[in-house]
Amino acid sequence: MKAVHYLALCAGLTLAGAAWAQKKGELEIDHPWARATPPGASVGGGYVTVRNAGDGADRLIGASSPAADHVELHIMAMDNGVMRMRQVPSFKVPAHGQLMLKPGGNHLMFLGLKQPLEPGERVPVKLRFEKAGEVEVQLEVGPMGASAPMPMHK
User: Is residue 4 domain-resident?
Assistant: First the structure.
């Protein structure tokens, strides 16, 4: 009987993992998540890891979401000893490499949020790649101040 429970658990984890990672051609989009925002906030951040198993590089050239007026690609960089954020036109996804969008670094910036991002909810986002085209993902919203994605949920 224990073996049946173990197999059921493994099957469930496999299905949950399949919902967490998404493939498009040679790209695998993994761990899409966002931080919760306080009431009244008009901006928020989104994070994801994009792995490229292909022989050629690709570029993340844009994103959109019904949760915000628009989504920009942003970098964090030191400028005269001050950390500053600025918009960029794209992010490279190197061949046989990865692009990591994470807190304190490169990220998606949601501008004009239509409502606060609440822990546990999912935010639909359409990522646009130069070669792979569009990929729709669901960002799982974690707590305010989170520094890593939340454990996957079904």
Answer: no
